[in-house]
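Lecture 7 notes. Example A: sequence first, then its structure tokens.
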Amino acid sequence: MSSYDVVNRQLNDEMQSLAEKITGGDYTERDRNRLSSIMYPKLKYYIWKFFNDHDETEEVLHNTLFKIFKGLASYNGKFRFTTWIYTIAKNESLLHRHKLKSQFAVRLDNMLTPPAIEDNSLSNFEKELYFDSLYSMTRAEMTQLPDSLEKSILK
């Protein structure tokens, strides 16, 4: 067993005992701070793997820590504390990823329906030129999106 594994196991055991102490009600603010200082880098690394972005990771990490400490009284001591916190982190990450994806959702029928032009002074040729350039710009922007997002838009 490597030294990393030994240290990681010791930290996980310390988190477990601190969580049990806190849920038992016999704790100090120092215990909560220690638990937080152990969890923070572990959860940050775990969440980072979902987003590879500092701002998104920090936002999800903040929400995760908030939920952990808010729901600490409901933690079931039969199970490992690490399993419980990583489950919360995973659920928060997936929820945040879903929110990000829905921000980029665009209805395809709205893109294919030309906007109404009230100005009748434009000739048919100018109108077609306008819609052709609008379509070209939209397609060009869509190619800049990540493949997974582009595929979900075109479905």
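Example B, a different protein, same format:
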Amino acid sequence: MSEAPSPQQLVAACQVLVERGWGTSTSGNLSCRCGDDVYATPTGVALGEVSADGLSRVDLQGRLLDGPRPTKELGLHLAVYRMQPNVRAVVH
């Protein structure tokens, strides 16, 4: 398995999307899997405003462990991680 991305890398990816004009307002969501934890963009927060401290941290069942409420599309992300254990990040 490849190395898991960090929450800081997730934030950096958010910034790249914003800089390229691909992440406007609160559209789009990102997450990364770090072991049994998933870091996801929170609901209602623009990608350009996401910080590592402001990410949602959930377990693979979707239970909130830390941070704000995650994106409403979290179920999609979790399904990918459960079905494809080698996947380390989801962007949509």
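Note on Example B: The two ends are 23 Å apart (CA to CA). The mean pLDDT is 91.
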